[in-house]
Amino acid sequence: MRELLEITRERLKEAGIPDYYHMAQELVCHVFNVDAVEIMTRNYMPDRAKEALLHEYTELCAAGKPLQYVTKAAYFLDIELYVDHRVLIPRPETEGLADIARQFVDLRRRNNEETSVLDICTGSGCIGLHLAKHGAHVTISDISSDALDVAKWNASALGLEVEAYQSDLFAAFDSGASGSQGQKERKFDIITANPPYIPSSVIPTLSINVRAWEPLTALDGGEHGWEIPDRIIKDYDRFLNPGGLFLMEIGDDQGQHYKDLCPGCRIIQDLEGHDRIVAIRK
């Protein structure tokens, strides 16, 4: 198995894949269902079918297809998710937002309070499902029916119960909106959002791995990048309970825009020191 690992590494290195070393290890672990230690210590019985699959996956990665789309798996904090071209691959920056929300859920639990969550622009469901695993009552929504299908599949695979709505932002929860699915306006203790926030002009400059494979509708935030996030900021308060928490991921150059737009908000930085999250406590 170590020989297969070296062959895979060399192929990815030859293709110019920056993280070829770790990518090769993840491919071998995934295909042979082993961990990194077992690669080095386990006696390998030849399996031509799995070797052929490893070769196929390696060539896809060498051609630029993201590893997570090849293996159909992405890890987000304490959950494993199915992902494909219908949803964005979860990022570490989004883990930071989910972790803040989870701490709020934990705080409320210690006070014997249940927590209702609305996760809009849910994509793979990563934020909402992480919070559901930690005991929150979660509602997820997305304008894309394809993305919502992936999120619902992930909820089922994880054994988590969530409500799911196809919705343009808050439309499904607005009693006054056309096509509203509720008799009265829904309110939540936490609202989370990871909307498209990349300016349209920046999209062509993104890595080919992103541009060629990930859904552009989940990336393109319009001329300035904040067209959709601004719509969320405008309406979130109507759907947030008193004492509730609003969290939204933003672009690393958009912090000042939201400080100006929402003077009472807090801008939280990611692990790289970039502005990344708008946080508002009602």
Task: Write out key terms for the chains shown.
282 residues, alpha/beta, Rossmann fold, 7-stranded mixed beta sheet, two-stranded antiparallel ribbon, 11 helices, 17% strand
In a few lines, what is going on in this structure?
This protein has 282 residues and is an alpha/beta fold. 41% of the residues lie in helices and 17% in strands.
Description:
There is one protein chain. The protein has 282 residues and is α/β, with parallel strands linked by helices. The protein has two domains: 62 residues; 195 residues, Vaccinia Virus protein VP39 (Rossmann fold, 3-Layer(aba) Sandwich), CATH 3.40.50.150. It has eleven helices and nine strands. Strands 5-4-3-6-7-9-8 form a seven-stranded mixed β-sheet, with helices on both faces. Helix 2 packs antiparallel against helix 4. The longest helix is centred in the middle third of the chain and has 19 residues. The termini are far apart. The mean pLDDT is 93.
